[in-house]
Amino acid sequence: MSTRDDQDEEKYQSTVLAVNDIDVDDEVQAYMQRVQSEAQSIRLYTEKVLTTSTTGKRKIGKHVETINLEGNTEDKRDGDWSKEMIRNFVELKSQIQALREHKGFSKSNLYRLNLNTHAVYKSPPPEMDFFILCLNRRKAFDALVLLTQLLNTTTTPEISQWIYKIFLKIDSTLEAKECSILRDLAKKARSISEELKLGEDHSNAENTSVTMFTCEMIISIVGIYYRQMDLL
């Protein structure tokens, strides 16, 4: 087990280059927030990493993917949507890791949050710098325990953003307890997804869209990236 994440608070305190140079945080934020604004038409958003032809530098680009939430959502986990979402997730993690190795996150304007209360998750998460510099591995998994409690059939975009950014923080090598926490989150997501598919009341299309996206995102990332394939 790598101890790199356990030492984040100490190891990366001297970093100086701002992450905004590649717009990682803005696009992670947009990735989830746009779910809310487009939920009426059941549009879900993914991110594509584009390479500019002039400089060769990678920037995060926007890509709209329209997904029909009706029918068997397991098809999306096994199909192109799931593969594309995981590919984009891994690309983004690679960029973040590259910045960490080159001390590319800024300590400026960082602040600490009390992640032990449900209230903090009602607001959008802070910038990615916070997750890299201020959130160690133990705190990240403690936060996932609370987020598992908050996950329900009317999940908010803010909850989705928090979960996604914590996934970006956590590497794929897990201890037994950490694996159990991720599995509990994915099992609850699967239960909620099945409940929504069987339910007859879909009057709130916005909440249904956000919740379905969040659940399928969780199941796919935990199942594929964190190698818990039996949950798919």
Automatic annotation (TrEMBL):
This is Uncharacterized protein. InterPro entries: Gemin2/Brr1 (IPR035426). It holds the Pfam family SIP1. One of its GO terms (biological process) is spliceosomal snRNP assembly. Gene3D superfamilies: 1.20.58.1070.
